[in-house]
């Protein structure tokens, strides 16, 4: 994260403290720079970003003030991520944007904590998230990515906590909302079979991810019902390294006779399409592709993928509503995993080979 965004987050937290104490005027840029250890220029630019977002009002000759919309917010929710996304990962950006839409409607302040696994590894009992909870700044925690169980249990012991985008909820007392990824795989297989495909493949970056395991099981089940076998030769695990990824996709295509791929998530599918395009291959004419996710608005410049929508928007809404209910009513709802049903969104990346 660059210095300006880093300073912005620091000032954001400070604004919440001031607002909680009914103080709405910020100190001067010079005072903030000395207080937080940044240059005056960095503080000025960070305040400019906050002003553009509507968090503060800057009045020439008078000072910088917390905006009315922040003053009126009665609750603060921490959105907790695992590590190192820096708000550039499309899937997590979509989650944050979806949550933001809901908190705006409910007049709630949102505070993002990234790389939380690292925070707890370095300071398991006294990091910035725990300090914010203990000081009363944070009213509830929404965990939006996979996290070590001990961290989630720690957070739940300190604050109302709800998990989304995670399959941890089985056997857990903490409410958890996730897409039914077995159903994702089943729908993808069923859809490709309905379009005449019989030579099918599954591609993922890693088979150890819980979503990949469930998707693959669902995919195989759909194929088995129609007498189509998916062998080890029909499964590609690319790994994360970019050079390895390119090589494995190329080798896999050259060795295969597949007419269609089911890919674990849409962002990953677009990387595969880029490699295929460099090989002068077209989607869907040369190979059909279906993927999990619904990022159409974000990925407008790419091919319109046929996807199995993992209900990100609904997941965020339900998770946040559950968390607010716990906070406002001080109750303990039934925990465990609530699975959302995915659905096919048809676009132009799958061809019907029967026609």
Short key terms for the protein model shown above:
single chain; 355 residues; alpha/beta; Arc Repressor Mutant, subunit A; Rossmann fold; six-stranded mixed β-sheet; 13 helices; 15 strands; elongated
Number of helices: 13
Count of spatially separate domains = 3
Number of strands: 15
H/E series, N to C?
HEHHEEHEHEHHEHEEHEHEHEHEEHEE
User: Overall mean pLDDT score?
Assistant: 86
User: From the coordinates shown, what is the CATH architecture of the largest domain?
Assistant: 3-Layer(aba) Sandwich
Give the termini separation.
51 Å
Structural class given helices, strands, pairing? alpha/beta
What is the CATH level 1 assignment of the largest domain? Alpha Beta
Global outline:
elongated
Cross-sheet strand order for the largest sheet: 5-4-6-7-8-14
- Give a quick account of the main beta sheet: strands, pairing sense, barrel closure: 6 strands, parallel
Overall radius of gyration: 23 Å
- The proportion of strand residues reads 15-25%
Question: Are there runs of 5+ residues with pLDDT below 50, and where?
Answer: 84-88
Oligomer: single chain
What's the CATH topology name of the largest domain? Rossmann fold
Q: At the fourth CATH level, what is the homologous superfamily of the largest domain?
A: Response regulator
The helix content is 40-55%
């Amino acid at each position: 994260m660059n210095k300006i965004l880093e300073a912005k987050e620091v000032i954001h937290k400070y604004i919440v403290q001031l607002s909680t104490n009914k103080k709405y005027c910020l100190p001067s840029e010079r005072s903030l720079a000395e207080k937080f250890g940044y240059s005056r220029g960095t503080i000025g630019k960070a305040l400019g970003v906050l002003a553009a977002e509507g968090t503060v009002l800057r009045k020439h000759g008078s000072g910088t003030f917390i905006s009315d919309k922040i003053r009126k917010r009665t609750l603060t929710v921490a959105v907790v991520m695992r590590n190192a996304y820096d708000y550039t990962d499309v899937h997590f950006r979509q989650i944050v944007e979806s949550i933001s839409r809901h908190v705006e409607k409910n007049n709630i302040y949102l505070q993002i904590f990234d790389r939380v696994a690292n925070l707890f590894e370095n300071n398991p009992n006294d990091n910035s998230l725990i300090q914010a909870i203990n000081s009363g700044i944070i009213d509830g925690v929404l965990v939006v990515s996979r996290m070590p169980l001990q961290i989630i249990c720690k957070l739940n012991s300190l604050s109302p906590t709800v998990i989304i985008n995670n399959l941890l909820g089985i056997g857990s007392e903490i409410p958890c909302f996730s897409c039914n990824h077995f159903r994702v795989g089943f729908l993808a297989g069923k859809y490709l079979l309905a379009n005449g495909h019989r030579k099918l493949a599954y591609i993922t970056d890693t088979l150890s991810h819980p979503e990949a395991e469930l998707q693959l099981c669902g995919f195989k089940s759909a194929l088995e019902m129609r007498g189509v076998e998916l062998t080890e030769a029909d499964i590609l695990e690319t790994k994360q390294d970019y050079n390895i990824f390119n090589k494995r996709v190329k080798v896999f295509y050259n060795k295969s006779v597949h007419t269609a791929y089911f890919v674990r998530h849409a962002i990953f599918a677009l990387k595969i399409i880029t490699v295929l395009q460099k090989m002068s291959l077209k989607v869907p004419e040369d190979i059909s592709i279906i993927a999990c996710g619904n990022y159409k608005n974000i990925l407008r410049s790419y091919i319109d993928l046929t996807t199995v929508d993992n209900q990100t928007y609904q997941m965020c809404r339900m998770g946040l509503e559950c968390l607010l209910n716990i906070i406002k009513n001080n109750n303990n709802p039934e925990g465990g995993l609530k699975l959302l049903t995915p659905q096919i969104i048809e676009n132009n990346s799958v061809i019907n080979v029967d026609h």
